[in-house]
Amino acid sequence: MNILFYLTTMAIYTCINGILTLGLNMQFGLAGILNLAFIVLVAVGAYCTGIAALPPAPAAGAVHYIGGFGWAFPWDLLFGMLVTVAFGCLLGLICFKRIAHWYLALTLSSIGWALLILVSNDANLFNGQTGLIGIPGPWQDQLSPFQYQFVVLAMCVVALAGVFILFSRIEHSPLGRGFRALREDELAAGSLAKNPLRLRMIAFLLGAGAAGLGGGLSAIYFGGWNDSAWQPGETFVILAAVIVGGRGRSLGALLGSVVVMDFLVEGSRFLPEIGGRTDLLPAIQGVAVSIVLIAVLWWRPFGMWPEQKERFPKLRRRPNDFLPAAAPALGGTE
Amino acid sequence: MQNIAQILAFGVVDAAVLAVAAVAFTLQFGVTNYFNFGYGEWLTLGAFVAFGFNNAVLHLNVWLAMLAAGLVTALFSVTLNRALFAPFVARRPDTMYILIMTFGVGFLMNELIQAIWGTDYRQLAYGGDDLHPIGPLQFSTNQLAFLGVSLACMAGTQLILSHTRLGRSMRAVSDNRTLAVICGIKPDRVADATWLMTGFMAGVAGVILAMQIHSFSTDIGDDYVYLIFPAVIIGGIGRAYGALIGALIIGLATAIGVLVIPASVSPLLVFAALVVIIITRPQGLLGGATGRGIMRQAEAA
């Protein structure tokens, strides 16, 4: 039973990480927006899901947060996602029209980090560094912790499957090809009547939706959320997953999230302790992830499972068939 | 009134510390054409190397430790540039990949520093803080020293940029790399010299920042880039004077802001300043080209 508990926990983590990696892959992998503040979107989703699910904060006492609607399961998650998308829309409206490429990366990360410091400093907004605690999950009070584990797992699997199907459809659709064209050469894409602003915004919002969903699910599963869960390093791990797996390919991103988050981060948990220092473990995890990322960037910049060139089926009909059927002027024989 | 003047004076001291870090960041970008997303860790490295010299074994005077930390960080930067960044850039990867590389190296540095020094809060050992009245204002000894170090760094940068052959080469490479190469400037050497200079300044900035906030952990650099990057963006990226002005604006704005709004929401001011500058003047106050123009330059290089 213990090992089953561990395995389900790992499966839940894998699903949530998969959703987040798919979200960043949509933004960075397909549309080329290097969003180093991705974790800020995740945090918005988590906080908003939390305040939607929690009852109102007691008027007296040390706990302060805005909202507190006490909504039931699907609505809190939806609220978190919607607010994240709205927040992404705001960021996009501020940034996309005027700046792009690496300057956008610098600006987005500056804005994200300013917000991080704001939320952890200010106790009134989301309870400061303590964060939100006791976020109720669906049917959590009626189930044993073991049964609840499976409920959350089912939710996460459904969410991951939904995001994956949607995103891999988009990847091969004209919209996805537009994203890639924009990523490779904005000027050329623009001259082919692809509106860079619109495409960038769509990709950013799709990614923000996935971020909000993943953030909301983790807030529900952990039952809490505070600022230590959204340090800049967290974005780094997700970004490493996208790069290691294969930028611009949904399956590659999923593979990357399994390799980086399950094998590297979780796997180093099983290493023997060195010199009795427990604080060494996070450092070793970080070192492993960054060395693998640097190695992949050096030797295989397109990842383990790179994006394929789009292939189109050959035309089955002869070129003449595309002419209007009744066109005697062209000398048709029928 | 005197109170406000005093607060402004403290804002100038904050800005002086920030300016050293911001000018080094923007200078390195200007010459190498990609910025260092892991820049915060250079400050962390400086602070912890100084801690090593100052506290752990050698018990050096803090100012000597600062010089030593600057030198160590400078040598480290050049080595890193020679071993990793320059060869990687020579392969002409997408600019984004260079940024991710610097971000990854920064992350690696942070984790290694954590593995060596642990996550505890540390303090540098330095002398007592006497107050000195200057006109109507009061400064502590260390604040005056921060101002002095910062002014020395700025003056040194200015002298190097305007009066030496190296400085002229740096400006030439920054303005037009191709033309500079045609004129016989070796951009690799210039890049090495730039990393040396900016690494030194980053190390020094880390130490004075550590002294200013008294106790620091391995997050010191990460927590500070959220002021450095906005300062650089506000001033106009790649412009040394711009970074100076940006640092002054942010230092003074947060100092005055504390009078109006609670200190806990003062990051909101930085956020607001960033949003205003992006909407009204995306290239920054001193940026010559438009936001897209700067990007084209970087693409062409």
Keywords:
heterodimer; A: 334 residues; mainly alpha; two-stranded antiparallel ribbon; 2 strands; 1% strand; globular; B: 301 residues; ABC transporter involved in vitamin B12 uptake, BtuC; 12 helices; 4 strands
What does this protein look like?
The complex is a heterodimer of chains A (334) and B (301). With 334 residues, chain A is mainly alpha-helical. Chain A has a domain at 2-231. Chain A is built from twelve helices and two strands; from the N terminus they run αααααβααααβααα. In chain A, strands 1-2 form a two-stranded antiparallel ribbon. In chain A, α1 (2-30) crosses α10 and α6 packs antiparallel against α9 (196-222). The longest helix of chain A has 29 residues, at 2-30. Chain A is globular and about 75 Å long. The model of chain A has no long low-confidence stretch (mean pLDDT 85). By secondary structure, chain B is mostly helical. Chain B has a single domain, classed as ABC transporter involved in vitamin B12 uptake, BtuC (Orthogonal Bundle). Chain B contains twelve helices and four strands; from the N terminus they run ααααβββααααβαααα. Chain B has helices at residues 2-32, 39-56, 62-90, 95-117, 141-163, 165-175, 177-182, 187-212, 220-235, 240-260, 267-280, 291-300, and strands at residues 122-123, 131-134, 137-140, 215-216. In chain B, β2 and β3 form a beta hairpin. In chain B, α1 runs parallel beside α5. The longest helix of chain B is centred in the N-terminal third of the chain and has 31 residues, at 2-32. At the A-B interface, α4, α10 and α12 of A face α4, α9, α11 and α12 of B.
